[in-house]
């Protein structure tokens, strides 16, 4: 087999992959820009459609309002046709102001509608071009501002119109009130003059109803003449009445003099009309200037739309070039991918071999963990056994101490002769109580026998366990020897295989069939070598485990010796305890005899 170098195949691919990635990034960026531009165009088209529909609805509403204003103006014109000259002048002023407002509003609406028609009459391509950028929104905002300004102007004009109407109505009411007061005063004056003329001369000389200013002067002069001619017939009451009437007439004349004439009112209304006409002219000039500004804005928008179309065409050409470059890069990338796939297959084979080795090592690790756990368990058992041995030592010491006490008290036991002598001498019951207490102490010592028996049972169990461990130790030693032999055999085979590989490697002059056979043999030899390596690893791990177990059993051998020594001590203690129990029985018999 030709040894493939994984590092050498990556050198030509390092120079081509960055160019390809940069081309892909540029292509993706261009596509993102195109999609964003398309979305902007769609959004602007939808917004323009909505705004044109709302503008048309607003124009319809304004037209309806203007028709309503016209109908109201005609109604007011008909209702005021039968009034006085002041009413006619006020209605003319109202009609002129309403007509001016209607004309100005229609001019504004027509200007806006004309701009909208111009904007809608552009071709679809130009509209899409103009809508591709944000100045289209600025144009719509300007149109909205103009519509709001026109609304404010209409509202201001309506308020001015209402103020003029209110002023005219106030003047009308004042004139009507003054006329009414004049009529009342003339009627009263006529009645008074009629009464005076009836009293003085009989029938009245003048009809007092609907008398003017000059008739008042005439009637007063006639009254003075009549009073002067018939002075002999008047009384003091009539003179006072005449004076009152003269004062009343003077007051009415002063009121008539203070009130302005109808000519002055007409002049004031004409002045107001002229002022309104001048204001309308100024507003028309402002509207014309704004229409010119709107036309300039539309021209700017069309120019910007053309620029955006040019930019879109340039981007399309760039996209075509990018697509061509992308196709070329894709072909080279496919070749590179094929080469990398071959390399990946070879490396995957190597990875599979390494995974097998890893699995073997993992199983060995698991076996080691299991053995470690068992060794820990055995170590814990040994520690427990050591604690039990320490307890046995303590118990042994306590038993020895007890035995020494019992041996010391053995010579103090009461004999039959002493009991008979005590009976003869007539000792008190205190001696009997002392003997009973000693018997109780000996009975309590019987619990120590039970403890010793339990310790004997545990010692026998530990002894059996140690015997089993010694057998296992012998078996493990045998297995260790076998594994060492196998390891030596595998090492020998491994060295032989390496020599064969060295001898089979450099030969290259064989024909093709011989080369294939040599490659097959080398592959087989490599497989055998891998298997031998695996077996060697397993055997080494097993040897380590066995060595650890041997060390642990060596440690436990010292414990076994300690157990043997303790068992011997326990046997001696049991013998002493049997002797103590016999002495205890003898004491009980002596006590029974003593009680009898």
Automatic annotation (TrEMBL):
Disordered: annotated span: 1-31
Record keywords: Coiled coil
Biased composition (Gly residues): 1-10
Compositional bias ranges of the Polar residues kind: 13-31
Keyword RNA-binding: no
Residue ranges the record marks as coiled coil: 154-188, 312-357, 389-590
Signal peptide: none
Protein name (record): Protein lava lamp
